[in-house]
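Q: Given only this backbone (277 positions), what sequence would you predict?
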């Protein structure tokens, strides 16, 4: 007990000693002389944990634990194949639902975080694209087949796509950069400004023609775009492709395009997502 008390006192007073008195010594040097047996009981500096300053057990110093193999995952290859099968049956199932279904089939119960980590290792991410249920109807499918048969008769460089877009004149960038701890300031319009509609014709070689219209695009402004901007541009054998917007379906639009020697082709309904962005 006396040796242990002296050792603890030495450890407590070592922090009060100048560094020069202890940096060249392997043990914690006390301020008073100790016997040989007490000196051996003083923990050496390399036996102290760097953060807790506690004595490291000797078995950890002399005989470190050797990891011979990796801990096997709770969900093996068979469970991962079952996960893929469950996702094919219902791709929007929650993690808790997947866990319960795996337990019902294999009697292996894991946590929700284990399901999440397994899906992450399998490179399965969360995503979902919604579409109207009428997209799978027979009418829409036949219209899509007919469109593909017609568009295959034209060369890619002869296709001319027309569409509209819009922007508000008060549109501004809402994010900026500044040093940490300071704000990035900027002004903004006090009121919402006017809308501008953009009509453009795009081919494989780039923008063929475009026009800007204040406000929304209506049938009259679209017919003016076709007659004044588009008709002089198309080449012989060109095919103009548009969607089924109501302002595109007028007889005047068809007459102007076909009168210039071009073909007119309307996209089938609900074709979003078929063409690449």
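A: Predicted residues:
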């Amino acid at each position: 007990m006396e040796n242990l008390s002296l050792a603890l006192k030495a450890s407590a007073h070592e922090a009060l000693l100048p560094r020069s008195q202890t940096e060249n010594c392997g043990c914690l040097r006390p301020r008073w002389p100790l016997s040989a047996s007490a000196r051996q009981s003083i923990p050496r500096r390399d036996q102290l944990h760097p953060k807790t300053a506690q004595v490291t057990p000797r078995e950890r110093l002399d005989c470190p634990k050797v990891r011979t193999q990796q801990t096997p995952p709770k969900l093996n290859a068979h469970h991962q194949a079952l996960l893929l099968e469950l996702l094919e049956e219902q791709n929007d199932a929650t993690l808790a639902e997947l866990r319960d279904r795996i337990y019902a089939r294999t009697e292996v119960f894991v946590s929700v975080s284990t399901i999440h980590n397994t899906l992450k290792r399998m490179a399965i991410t969360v995503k979902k694209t919604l579409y109207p249920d009428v997209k799978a109807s027979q009418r829409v499918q036949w219209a899509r087949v007919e469109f593909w048969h017609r568009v295959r008769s034209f060369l890619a460089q002869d296709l001319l796509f027309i569409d509209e877009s819009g922007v508000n004149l008060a549109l501004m960038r809402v994010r900026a950069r500044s040093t940490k701890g300071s704000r990035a300031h900027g002004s903004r319009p006090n009121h919402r400004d006017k809308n501008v509609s953009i009509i453009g014709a795009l081919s494989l070689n780039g923008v063929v023609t475009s026009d800007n219209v204040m406000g929304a695009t209506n049938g009259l402004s679209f017919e003016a775009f076709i007659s004044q901007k588009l008709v002089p541009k198309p080449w012989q054998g060109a095919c103009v492709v548009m969607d089924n917007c109501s302002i595109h379906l007028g007889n005047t639009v068809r007459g102007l395009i076909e009168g210039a020697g071009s073909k007119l082709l309307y996209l089938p309904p609900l074709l979003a997502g078929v063409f690449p962005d």
